[in-house]
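[Solved] Which block belongs to which protein?

Original post:
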Amino acid sequence: MASSGSCCSISASTWPTTCSRNHLSSNLFFVYIFGKLVEEEEGNFALWMSYILTGAGANLISWLALPTSSVSLGASGAVFGLFTISVLVKMSWDWRKILEVLILGQFVVDKVLEAARATTITGQSFQVNNVAHVSGALIGAALVFLVSRIPFSSNDDNPKATKRVNRK
């Protein structure tokens, strides 16, 4: 994110750009894996909205929290948002879903705590925007919470109910 903090720089840095080829490869891999899980559960539109809102939100929080001389590149906030959303939308009492949540949840919690520790312990985050990681995860959790509170008027409006019918 450019230090000017313009809307363009806040949203542009949600796209997979980075200074390191390994970081880019890692972000693309995780966007593919966790994005696919979100898309399977909630649909294409929800995936795009989740990606954009968690990425732009994390970049906005980074812009507000970090020194003005900071420059942030990459989609880490969106990646961590998709991590969190993919785990939370999988939660149900079906034993297969519980197993998925346990496996994915352990990974997501470890990564979020690692980012939080790196930010709070060192104060410096070794040129990794851990503020974006943590805020992307929190924004993802908030999105799932807010969307779960939206009442659906009928089963026709509920994407999960429609998907269950289509599977039969």
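(Second protein starts here: sequence line, then its structure tokens.)
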Amino acid sequence: MKKKITVIALTAVFSLSLGTSVFAQEVPSQDATSESINLQNIPTREGGEITTLALWNVVTNQGYQGLSYGAWVDGVSGPGPGTLTLSKTVSVSNTYSGTLTAKVDDITAAVGFSISATNSTTASYSIKVPNGKKYKIRYRPVYQMYKATQYTYSTDVGSSVLLSTDVIYPKKYAYLEYDYVEIK
């Protein structure tokens, strides 16, 4: 039995006052000769005919969660006695952890910053190295971490069904942190 699918295209963006954003996403129309849409996770009406289908996301900002730290990056190393100085331009980016199921723009609207923004900054740090020692300066990015919940819904003739709930942790670059270690 073939399933007939008629799709309405929705393009809507709603911002609600509590940091909640609702997004509708266009779903391409399918005809009987094209590949079928995978209906495994999408509810169908009795009889197997879907008359209207829209997939949309609600992204809620759960707020600031604290600081998150990136991996250490080696800067410069050198022996003493003297001053060891790191001064270089580095690329820094906002990022996220978790499963991204909504569009990047949906997350941006909910948390107020782009999770894909990239900038450059200067890594700058100095340390006095004693005679007979060798030090290495390293640095890492520090992020302000937020929590957002992504809800994906399907709408079939006026009834909405929650398909999935996924958490993502958007991370906004804040500053570079520095450290030094002795090289043996």
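Accepted answer:
You had them paired correctly. Confirming on the second one: The first strand starts at residue 13 and ends at 15.
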